[in-house]
């Protein structure tokens, strides 16, 4: 019916009732889009999914990515430019395999690309590479960031110029293996049975050093509290942190958003400090097609947008495509839940 017809305008479809959103990139597979506004343009730093013919396993071995491309757009709904290979696995001296979800930052004339990759012992670490251009190419530092581990770095620059890295992901992202402070390979999913009534594993946050190449402090827990001020529990799969952290600031408050992994939700929590504790507020997006769900949030020309992915083009969980749509808030600041 006419009421269900969607009007698609260069990637975003608008109409009442539902919203048809087209993939932003369709010649290659892209996922985990971290978007930033640099020099008045939108730059997207996604994972570059490929068919590597690695069988699916619980550790995410089938996500066997080997390089990154950077994309830019002058406007939402405008042309998307592919700037080519920004960083290749073979040019990261310490890397073994699996270039997962990256992020980028800018400080004092230099652009930074942060990326998780397994080292030669198959342990995820977070690396950093630099460029004079937001589009790259980026040159990797010779070693991972000291004290880094797990996946999904998201670097937030506060209004005072201070950078913070949020990171971590459980199960294939290995965060649970660091629970005791040392790497324990026997912990393969979360902390497992018997831990459901204990506080959930937390994402980590660390202040960045002035040169953005290292942590200025030991990573701390990003605590998420429920409406009674109690930490979310490990068994609370609809609300607890799994992976894919993002941080944005709106009206002076800090919004920490993330994926719940096995329940496939994007949720958010709010705080008056970039360190938290954050109070759980609700669901930003209900499950998309595909197992993983990963997003970023930016403001561009007075509107807020969420970048995310699904598997519309391939129908396969490890071959994803990025999308964008508007993020809408109610008058009280609450983020409206999106049903994709
Ligand atoms: O793309 C590989 C991994 O899948 C990411 O690091 C996670 O956030 C999930 O999207």
Automatic annotation (TrEMBL):
InterPro entries: Glyco_hydro_43, Glyco_hydro_beta-prop_sf, Glycosyl_Hydrlase_43_Enz. One of its GO terms (biological process) is xylan catabolic process. The record marks 152 as: Important for catalytic activity, responsible for pKa modulation of the active site Glu and correct orientation of both the proton donor and substrate. The keyword Hydrolase applies. The keyword Protein transport does not apply. GO terms for molecular function: hydrolase activity, hydrolyzing O-glycosyl compounds. PANTHER family: ENDO-1,4-BETA-XYLANASE (PTHR43772), PUTATIVE (AFU_ORTHOLOGUE AFUA_2G04480)-RELATED (PTHR43772:SF2). Belongs to the glycosyl hydrolase 43 family. This is Glycosyl hydrolases family 43. It comes from Dyadobacter soli.
């Amino acid at each position: 019916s006419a009421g269900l017809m969607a009007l698609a305008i260069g990637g975003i479809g608008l109409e009442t009732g539902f919203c048809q959103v087209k993939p932003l990139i369709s010649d290659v597979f892209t996922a985990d889009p971290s978007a930033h506004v640099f020099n008045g343009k939108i730059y997207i730093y996604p994972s570059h999914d490929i068919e590597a013919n690695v069988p699916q396993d619980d550790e995410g071995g089938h996500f066997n990515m080997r390089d990154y491309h950077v994309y830019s757009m002058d406007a939402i709904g405008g042309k998307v430019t592919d700037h080519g290979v920004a960083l290749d696995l073979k040019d990261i001296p310490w890397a073994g395999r699996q270039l997962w979800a990256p992020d980028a930052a800018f400080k004092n004339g230099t652009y930074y690309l942060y990326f998780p990759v397994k080292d030669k012992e198959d342990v995820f670490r977070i690396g950093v590479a630099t460029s004079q251009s937001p589009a790259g190419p980026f040159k990797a530092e010779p070693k991972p960031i000291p004290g880094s581990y797990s996946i999904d770095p998201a670097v937030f620059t506060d209004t005072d110029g201070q950078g913070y890295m949020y990171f971590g992901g459980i199960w294939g992202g290995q965060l649970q293996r660091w629970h005791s402070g040392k790497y324990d390979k026997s912990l393969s999913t979360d902390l497992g049975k018997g831990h459901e009534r204990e506080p959930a594993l937390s994402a980590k946050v660390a202040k960045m050093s002035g040169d953005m190449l290292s942590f200025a402090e030991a990573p701390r827990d990003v605590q998420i509290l429920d409406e009674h001020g109690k930490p979310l529990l490990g068994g609370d799969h609809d609300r607890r942190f799994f992976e894919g952290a993002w941080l944005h600031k709106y009206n002076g408050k800090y919004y920490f958003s993330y994926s719940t992994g096995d329940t496939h939700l994007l949720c958010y929590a709010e705080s008056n400090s970039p360190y938290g504790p954050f109070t759980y507020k609700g669901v930003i997006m209900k499950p998309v097609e595909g197992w993983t769900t990963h997003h970023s949030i930016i403001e561009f020309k007075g509107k807020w947008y969420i970048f995310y992915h699904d598997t519309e083009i391939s129908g396969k969980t490890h071959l994803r495509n990025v999308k964008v749509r508007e993020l809408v808030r109610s008058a009280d600041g609450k983020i409206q839940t999106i049903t994709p």
